[in-house]
């Protein structure tokens, strides 16, 4: 349920459009283009009495504009070494929040293109839409008088064709982020695995995305033994029982590339037997944002329908419960690839629920055209410790590294402000997970938090490669398969707060919009 978006330009009678205010996002009033000359006058008058115009969001009386009012949200300087396109989305978020406080219900967002940031208008629109998201539980409970924070969001464009394209892209990308927020942000009961599966089935009804849900326990135990081990305790509660949600999109025309995605969908992470004590369990319903990213990306595919692209996805929806039947440290679990895995810490369940699905993708990849494999997960606290709270991390195996995959993702992320840092999987990471005795082939994890473990966000990528059998498809093999692990623990969003949608804007840019942005 996305806020209605429409485009307009200054040749249109704005009062007939019934907008009730203008939200201007720009570096400053003196840099506005000629087409927006009539916005400059009220700002010039205000700047004469307040030198903080570029530092605060302000509301001005502006006769002649829709609603006779103007909200100005400055980006501040955008030309320094450390500036990026997020200045525009941040300003739009602040501007729309101020417009809501002012009572606007039909705001017109104006963000003129910037010479150094060709996608600044689209990025501002996405920032505004992020601020307008209303949580799923709030919508379903009818707590508000409407399921929207505003009736309509107008987007200004200099030309009609440009405006139509802006609305199409903003609406399509936001539809994916909305699905991501609904799944990733909803509480552990509303998005328990069975209900998450139902949400996805409803989302893609009558769309080009095919959905298949695996719920049978015997099938889960046979096909996904590591996932089934995590599910063992939750399975005793019917409403918490695991689901594997499989998605597929096949674009028109000859397929030129196949993406194969596995998303971590821990609906709630208690830590299992290694319980999250000391008050750190709060927020663990967000441990499903990797799976939410998979669903969100498919929603964008369903809207934009790219040709020549096939995408296969899997959402591993499992609750890591604690109780008499939970899996415990020291257990030996044989993965789908036949690797004996020694459990070191039940709080490292994310890698367990993904590894067999990754193995399944590996098995299918040999028959696909130009396959690329990915795991996406809110996996480690170390990712936040290493890179901070706002950046996704991508790590390539050998074949993916040789193709420059991580660099391509990083570059794509910079276009719409969905930013990445690049890490490298090293030999120490593989050594870390080698079995420590003749009982096991692979050690799942040590018994320390990732944030207290050297290379704490890199070693899980090596585990996933080893336990899935992807180590037999490296650069030294006869059948190399490019694989990348993406840790979004830092970028998925704050709690309390609204999930960001990372990394689906970067994914869409890289694989759908590369030639159109």
Your description of this structure?
One of its GO terms (cellular component) is cytoplasm. Belongs to the peptidase M17 family. This is Cytosol aminopeptidase domain-containing protein. The protein has two domains: 5-158, Leucine Aminopeptidase, subunit E, domain 1, CATH 3.40.220.10; 187-511, 3-Layer(aba) Sandwich (Aminopeptidase). Helix content is 36%, strand content 19%. It is built from 17 helices and 17 strands. It has an eight-stranded mixed β-sheet with strand order 7-8-10-9-13-17-14-15, sandwiched between helices. Helix 6 (160-185) runs antiparallel to helix 10, helix 8 (217-223) packs antiparallel against helix 9 and helix 11 packs across helix 16. It is elongated and about 80 Å long. The two termini are 25 Å apart. The mean pLDDT is 95.
Short structural description:
The chain has 517 residues and is α/β, with parallel strands linked by helices. It is 36% helix and 19% strand. The chain has two domains: 5-158, Leucine Aminopeptidase, subunit E, domain 1 (3-Layer(aba) Sandwich); 187-511, Aminopeptidase (3-Layer(aba) Sandwich).
């Amino acid at each position: 349920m996305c806020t209605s978006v429409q485009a307009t330009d200054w040749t249109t009678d704005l009062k007939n459009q019934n907008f009730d205010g203008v939200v201007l996002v720009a570096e400053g009033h003196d840099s506005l283009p000629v087409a927006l000359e009539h916005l400059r006058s009220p700002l010039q008058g205000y700047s004469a009495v307040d030198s903080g115009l570029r530092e605060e969001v302000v509301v001005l009386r502006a006769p002649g504009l829709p609603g006779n009012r103007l909200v100005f949200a400055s980006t501040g300087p955008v030309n320094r070494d450390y500036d990026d396109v997020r200045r525009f989305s941040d300003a739009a978020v602040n501007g729309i929040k101020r417009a809501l406080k002012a009572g606007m219900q039909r705001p017109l967002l104006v963000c003129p293109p910037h010479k150094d940031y060709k996608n600044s208008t689209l990025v501002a629109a996405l920032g505004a839409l992020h601020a307008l998201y209303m949580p799923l539980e709030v919508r379903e409970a009818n707590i508000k008088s409407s399921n929207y924070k505003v009736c309509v969001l107008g987007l200004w464009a200099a030309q009609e064709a440009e405006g139509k394209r802006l609305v199409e892209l903003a609406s399509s990308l936001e539809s994916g982020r909305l699905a991501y927020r609904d799944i990733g942000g909803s509480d552990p009961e509303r998005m328990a695995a069975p209900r998450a599966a139902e949400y996805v089935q409803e989302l893609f009804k009558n769309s080009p995305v095919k959905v298949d849900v695996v719920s049978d326990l015997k099938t889960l135990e046979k096909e996904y033994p590591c996932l089934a081990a995590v599910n063992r305790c939750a399975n005793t509660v019917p409403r918490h029982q695991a689901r594997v949600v499989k998605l597929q999109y096949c674009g028109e025309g000859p397929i030129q590339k196949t993406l194969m995605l596995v998303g971590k969908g821990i609906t709630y992470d208690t830590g299992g037997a290694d319980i999250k004590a000391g008050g750190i369990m709060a927020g663990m319903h967000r441990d499903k944002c990797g799976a939410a990213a998979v669903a969100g990306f498919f929603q964008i595919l369903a809207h934009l329908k790219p040709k020549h692209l096939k995408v296969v996805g899997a959402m591993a929806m499992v609750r890591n419960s604690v109780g008499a039947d939970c899996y415990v440290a020291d257990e030996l679990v044989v993965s789908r690839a036949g690797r004996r895995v020694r459990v070191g810490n039940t709080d490292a369940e994310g890698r367990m629920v993904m590894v067999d699905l990754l193995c399944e993708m590996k098995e299918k990849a040999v028959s696909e055209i130009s396959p690329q494999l990915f795991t996406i997960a809110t996996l480690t606290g170390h990712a936040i410790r290493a890179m901070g709270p706002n950046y996704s991390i991508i790590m390539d195996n050998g074949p993916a590294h040789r193709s420059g995959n991580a660099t391509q993702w990083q570059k794509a992320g910079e276009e719409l402000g969905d930013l990445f840092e690049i890490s490298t999987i090293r030999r120490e990471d593989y050594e870390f997970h080698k079995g420590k005795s003749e009982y096991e082939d692979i050690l799942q994890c040590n018994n320390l938090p990732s944030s207290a473990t050297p290379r704490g966000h890199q070693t899980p990528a090596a585990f996933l490669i080893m336990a899935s059998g992807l180590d037999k498809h490296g650069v030294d093999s006869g059948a190399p398969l490019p694989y990348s692990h993406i840790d979004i623990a830092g970028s998925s969003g704050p709690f309390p707060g609204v999930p960001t949608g990372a990394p689906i804007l970067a994914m869409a840019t890289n694989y759908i919009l590369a030639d159109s942005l």
